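Researcher: Let's try something more involved. This one mixes different molecule types, so please make sure each is placed in the same coordinate frame as the others.
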Amino acid sequence: MKCVIIANGDLEYSEDIAGIIRQARLIVCADGGARHLKALNILPHVIIGDFDSASPEDLLFFEEKKIKTISYPSRKNETDSELCISWALLNHATDITILGGTGTRLDHTLANIYLLKKLAGLNIPARVLNKHNIIHIVSGRIELKGRPGEVVSVLPITEKASGITLRGLEYPLVNATMEMGSSLGISNVFKETTASVSVRKGLLMVIQATD
Amino acid sequence: MKCVIIANGDLEYSEDIAGIIRQARLIVCADGGARHLKALNILPHVIIGDFDSASPEDLLFFEEKKIKTISYPSRKNETDSELCISWALLNHATDITILGGTGTRLDHTLANIYLLKKLAGLNIPARVLNKHNIIHIVSGRIELKGRPGEVVSVLPITEKASGITLRGLEYPLVNATMEMGSSLGISNVFKETTASVSVRKGLLMVIQATD
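Model: All components are placed in one shared frame. Result:
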């Protein structure tokens, strides 16, 4: 079951983004992410958080539409996004896209990206998506769709990642090893419209990026 | 010797930023970062890269001022920022600040942040700095300066980080363990004007963030 999580970072209001949200069977809103859904006139299935960032007007708007809210104390160990992922998993999500997960606050951006690690371990396809980037964490293999010339960067996010094979890209690799901090995998490009990245040991961050 | 590296991402042209650059004994420019220095009317000691992103006008401007350039082929394993760090280390930098290292391209942003790992291993204080964030990678101990209430987030970037002690923050920790993907350390805050973060095993990303 496809799920989108709308967090409180930046979100571009385009037809593409609205389409991704509307096509999801589960729409989960993290606290202040409510402002994005109100602007797009889309109702979520649930709003989850400590409610320190959603405006009273936005909350009232969704309350009047009988949208379910789940409230947590602000002194908690999880971010609102993490609570949304737990809820999504309990409610049988099998594919998760995080929108509004990036922005000026790099601590939140990175925390949202690292949340993908848990999902990779559960074999649940997931990504953080914004106007310029689609970010994946890969622990096995991933197939990517893109346009020839589009950038794909591959970064090891464990001390070492080995058995790395890249296919369908301008700079292919077979059974290679990369260490954290190496820039070897930055700015590779699609040769055709599909590509794949696989890794035997360790974790990779795979980013499809446009300027 | 204090060094700043000016990369080709976003950079806010403020008096603070110009001050940080002018106070550095070594000013190293990565390729298209030249546009920032030209706008600020500051001359670097060297411009390094494959010169696929600096404009011919900007390069001519610095050429006329006799600024040294070091050119690399575009098919290389290192990013321009990584080449700048290598040059800075060869030229005895003992403290490195990366400016213009963040922006819409999250692959470049993350690659620049992960470059700090090598510097942490060499015990060289270093950070990626932009208008909203100061990002450190910590392998031992770091002392931070801030204002009471200012946000400090601590993320493990190895599978596990242990012996984590946080002092001077609203939510202190003593000898704690965090796993990659945990949000436990997100959005802590300064209690006074100094704080410290230390870790015995593993690596932490420490981000001072403002909205």
